[in-house]
Amino acid sequence: NAGVTQTPKFQVLKTGQSMTLQCAQDMNHNSMYWYRQDPGMGLRLIYYSASEGTTDKGEVPNGYNVSRLNKREFSLRLESAAPSQTSVYFCASIASVGNTIYFGEGSWLTVV
Amino acid sequence: RKEVEQDPGPFNVPEGATVAFNCTYSNSASQSFFWYRQDCRKEPKLLMSVYSSGNEDGRFTAQLNRASQYISLLIRDSKLSDSATYLCVVIFFSGGYNKLIFGAGTRLAVHP
Fold first, then answer.
1. Alpha-carbon gap: B95 to the closest alpha carbon of chain A (Å)
2. Of A23, A28, A73, B15, which alpha carbon lies 20 to 30 A from B83's?
3. What's the whole-number average pLDDT of chain A?
């Protein structure tokens, strides 16, 4: 099925550990995004990628890095996890301005 | 001022009630408008697009007022299954990418 695939769905990390959240879309979308969602705060943009090979910081980029090696995949890396990064992470993609935004199912990350 | 503002609610309504949500946005260059629905611990999913001419999908009616910079969602004959958080989304093209701006969401709880 077409859509956005996000892994892992659940992860528990110890403070200081690193991990990568993977995201892939098969809809040939140029724009991809990583958001985090915390209770009562809505979706906050971490990083985005307007096209293959380009990435830019969003609203809350500190503590994260991203990689857009090809058009399909956009990964989010936590180099040294902190408890403040406990959150739900969503990957999203869109074809163009007037089109539907597609989301992955989310990754629940807990840092202890 | 937030770029997109919504009343967080919660709106607690009985089954069969009519409920309306409003959302205001600050950027007059905004090009596309949507309502998304998010269930607890799930990803946001498209409910409907919003146009100046207004659009209706069954019990749901959405309206855009560009002059006043707000969008609305009307739900008639509320069902228990309508209980969810409703996100207002505004999109515009800026700085070489599609900028997605989400409201923090309005919670709806429909009770028997």
1. 10
2. A23
3. 93
Q: Is A48 on the interface with B (CB under 8 A)?
A: yes
- A94:B89 CB<8 A: no
Residue B52 has pLDDT above 90, yes or no: no
Higher per-residue confidence, B105 vs B94: B105
A49, with CB counted inside 10 A (0-12, 13-18, 19+), is: buried
pLDDT-above-70 percentage for chain B: 99
Beta strand extents in chain B (DSSP E only): 4-6, 11-14, 19-25, 32-38, 45-49, 55-57, 60-65, 70-75, 84-94, 97-102, 106-111
CB A69 within 8 A of CB A76: no
CB A5 within 8 A of CB A102: no
For residue A2, the model assigns a pLDDT of 66
